[in-house]
Amino acid sequence: MAISMDMIESERVEGNTPTLRLFALLEVIAEKDSYFSLQSLSEELGIPKPTLHRMLQQLESARLIIRDGDGRQYSTGRRLHQMAEKLLLNNTIHGSRRAVLRHLVEEIGESCNITACSGNEVLYLDRVETVAPLRFYLHPGSRVPLHCSASGKLFLAQMSPSQCRRLLEAAPLEQYTPNTLTRFDAIEQEIEQVRRQGYAMDNEEFLPGLICIAVLVPGENGKSNMGIAAQSPIMRITREKALDFLPVLRRAADSLAEIEKANAAA
Fold first, then answer.
1. Which tens digit of pLDDT belongs to each residue from 141-187?
2. How many other CB atoms are there within 10 angstroms of residue 105's CB atom?
3. Nearest of 43, 52, 66 to residue 24 by alpha carbon
4. Full-prediction pTM beyond 0.85?
5. Which of 149, 137, 130 is nearest to 227 (CA)?
6. Rounded to a whole number, what is the distance in angstroms from the first to the last CA of the chain?
7. Which domains does the chain have, with CATH numbers?
8. Residue 28 burial (CB < 10 Å; 0-12/13-18/19+)?
């Protein structure tokens, strides 16, 4: 259904065609960290509800947004998430990122990976394995739960308490090892500690015998959907030794941030 140009007054939803205005609306929606209603979005954008309703219907029919149980609240849809994941995995700056990752592995001697938050999971964007004989094999495209991974805790620490709880409630908090935190209060306490210290650890919480430490790649707006982490069997490192990786991890994170910034400006 075509939408006439004179029906849209919002400066944030601009475009010369209905398709471009739908895309602009999708950009606004993608920035939200919580559910939204037709009423709240209409008030925010200054678009009449009948017009906005038709636009949301089009996005919903394309599976780019979805409604929650009561049908009054909207959020981003799985198809949009899949598009974002494919862009991250197939980004043209993959080679530059991988060079940073390879150098990091050479420096610390352990496997390292670059991650992003995808729904209620952590998505591995890239990974370089150590040459050491004992290692845990994971590959780009692998997914791990948010609640028991170092990168996942970092992503959760950036969210509001309501968004964090909503993501964690979307799937059962499975206990993978005796160290896995599965109670909301314990996870929230852990996340608050991550906020204070600026890094996160997975202390055999996802896989027995595996320890992981991660930091965020700095983002221009203060938030980031990219992390960088080092993993090692506990036979080679302790929690205390993993902390020694932090300066090198942060330098690598800064290098990745510069690559992202240059790519955005290109």
1. 788 999 999 999 999 999 888 888 888 887 789 999 999 999 999 99
2. 20
3. 52
4. no
5. 149
6. 35
7. 18-76 (1.10.10.10), 83-265 (3.30.450.40)
8. middle
